[in-house]
Amino acid sequence: MIEFDSVSKRYSTGHEALNRVSFKIPREEMVFLTGHSGAGKSTLLKLIMLMERPSAGQIIVDGQDLKQMPQRQIPFHRRKVGVVFQNHQLLFDRTVFDNVALPLIIEGHPPREIGRRVRAALDKVGLLKYEKLNPIALSGGEQQRVGIARAVVNKPALLLADEPTGNLDPELSAEIMHLFEEFNQVGVTVLVATHDIALINSMDHRILSLSHGMTAGVGT
Questions:
Q1: Which residues are registered as beta bridge partners of 161?
Q2: Are 68 and 61 in contact (CB under 8 A)?
Q3: Is 218's pLDDT higher than 60?
Q4: Hey, what's the torsion of the CAs at 27, 180, 7, 3, to 10 degrees?
Q5: How far apart are CA 106 and CA 114, in angstroms?
Q6: How far apart (Å, rounded) are the C-alpha atoms in residues 49 and 66?
Q7: Which residue among 47, 88, 98, 159 is least enclosed by CB atoms within 10 Å?
Q8: What's the confidence (pLDDT) of residue 165?
Q9: Phi, psi of 16 (to 5 degrees)
Q10: What are the backbone angles phi and psi of residue 20, rounded to the nearest 5°?
């Protein structure tokens, strides 16, 4: 599903965020991405999303060479990738339902299909009864679940998460990670960037480590 071959990323400031990073993540695998602050985790995820372009090397996602992808195809590429952020990035002038529906509205799905898929996603994360509430009325953990529902509502083949438990207590963090496992078990490829070493060491998934922009190790 994801292949990095000697990928480097140097910003215009001269900062080299990634230096010849290589790894493969097969389809339907769940992998944790770890490393110190500034190790290059967020840059790596941005490259997969085509929010950034590599300075060198090759990135293949779902069989497509991202370096060769023209600008006009980027929106279609992003529809295949669900993204969960640490700070939720929810819209507080809309209901929970409307927040989750946003990707489907952008894609032009009919209202009946939107309703069915949004409620299925909310049910999956345990928030169906909150669909009419404003997200600001929810706890931090519940807001993160809304973000996850929004990320998976269009049934992406790949799910990326950037520090999704950074603002949560250990119990809620474990619940969120197990929710990612549930999506992985139904065939979604999952890549989670996180600092929570204790939590991921308690889970049976491969760990990809970055250090100063380079691959520091790949666990099993």
A1: 84, 192
A2: no
A3: no
A4: 0
A5: 11
A6: 9
A7: 98
A8: 85
A9: -100, 105
A10: 55, 55
Report helix, strand and coil shares of the chain as percent, to nearest 5: 40, 25, 35
Q: Please give the share of the chain, as a percent, with pLDDT higher than 70.
A: 98
The pLDDT of residue 220 is: 42
Torsion of CA 33, 72, 5, 3, to 10 degrees: 50
- Residues counted in the chain: 220
Query: What does the pLDDT read at residue 217?
Result: 60
What pLDDT digit, counting tens, does each position of 132-161 carry? 999 999 998 999 999 999 999 999 999 999
Query: What letter represents residue 36's amino acid?
Result: H
Is the CB of residue 213 less than 8 Å from the CB of residue 179? no
Residues 24-37, mean pLDDT to the nearest whole number: 94
The answer to whether the beta carbons of residues 178 and 146 sit under 8 Å apart is no
Distance between CA atoms of 118 and 120, rounded to whole angstroms? 5
**81-85 and 158-162 beta bridge pairing:** parallel
Q: What is the pTM of this model?
A: 0.91
